[in-house]
Amino acid sequence: MTRGRLGGAAVGSGDVTGRRRLGGAVVGSGDVTGRRRLGGAVVGSGDVTGRRRLGGAPAGRAVARCDLARPSSEVAPEVLGMLLVRDDGRAARIVEVEAYGGTADPASHAYRGPTPRNRTMWGPAGHLYVYRSYGIHWCANIVCGPDGVANAVLLRAAEPVAGIELMRAARWRDQRQQRDRDLCRGPGRLGEALGLDRSYDGADLITGSHGLRLIDDSGTDPAVRGPVAVTGRIGLSRAADTPWRFFLALSPAVSGRRPA
Predict the structure, then answer these.
(1) Total tally of structural domains belonging to the chain
(2) Does residue 47 lie within any of the structural domains?
């Protein structure tokens, strides 16, 4: 599998399109004007810095479960720019993700079927699947797709928005360089900065069952996320060229390689 699909349209590796699918419609193809379509209305300020302003505490709407109950390759680019918000005041804006396609995807944890480790992946959508990578880092995924399909979106990087002192306390130990842009720059760092571990596996991001929610604040925030870039996935031995890695092309917090 060498090409991915977004809403039925193939997207090539290294493509910087600025496209987004919301409510079933693709918008912004090649458009970096800062406009964004929400519920049929175009909003945005024309700012193409890739960073979004947040005045005060994070505000917005909880994402609906039905919005996530679709294939991971469609959901993944749509969660870019959304907020992960903890009840202790920490919040981070998602800037880089990867889609994984269940039993049809040889790179997915669900490729060989259900196990005690991956059981959360099998649904329902809107829950968090947390696993340990290399016995060190806790990595978080948003479960998506219909029940029983085991699609998921890996959260690769985010920009700190609130509760930064708590993130610093969780992350900085013996690191020589302690830059805030690096707090959530990578899936393991993101999990550590937000205090996520296996106890968050199965957390419902819609109801906030574990004090953690996925919030779309685009209706209250006039700034925009900027163009989206697409590449193959990182660090895989199988299906690495499938173009299911999506990131905000102008964000300084993106963790991996960028298109040349």
Answers:
(1) 1
(2) no
33 belongs to a structural domain: no
The single-letter DSSP state of residue 59 is -
d(CA 93, CA 203): 18
CATH number at residue 198: 3.10.300.10
Between CA 140 and CA 174 the distance in angstroms is 24
CA 103 to chain centroid? 21
Which residue range is the domain that position 91 belongs to?
A: 58-218+228-248
Residue 207 domain flag? yes
- The predicted-structure confidence for 122-175, as pLDDT tens digits, reads as follows 989 999 999 998 778 899 999 999 999 999 999 999 999 999 999 999 998 766
Query: How many angstroms separate the CA atoms of 77 and 120, rounded?
Result: 21
Helix (H, G, I), strand (E, B) or coil at 74: helix
Distances (CA, A) of 2 to 96, 195, 202, 239: 20, 35, 31, 7
Tell me how far CA of residue 258 lies from CA of 79, 141, 205, 248, in angstroms: 19, 22, 29, 10
The answer as to whether 81 is a domain residue is yes
In one letter, which amino acid is 157? Answer: A
d(CA 126, CA 192) in angstroms, rounded, equals 21
Exposure pattern of 40-75 as b/e (b: 16+ CB <10 Å)?
eeebbeebbebbbebeeebebeebebebbbbbbbbb
Tell me, yes or no, if the pTM score tops 0.85.
no
pLDDT tens column, 60-94: 888 999 999 999 999 999 999 999 999 999 999 99
Do 75 and 142 form a contact (C-beta atoms < 8 A)?
Answer: yes
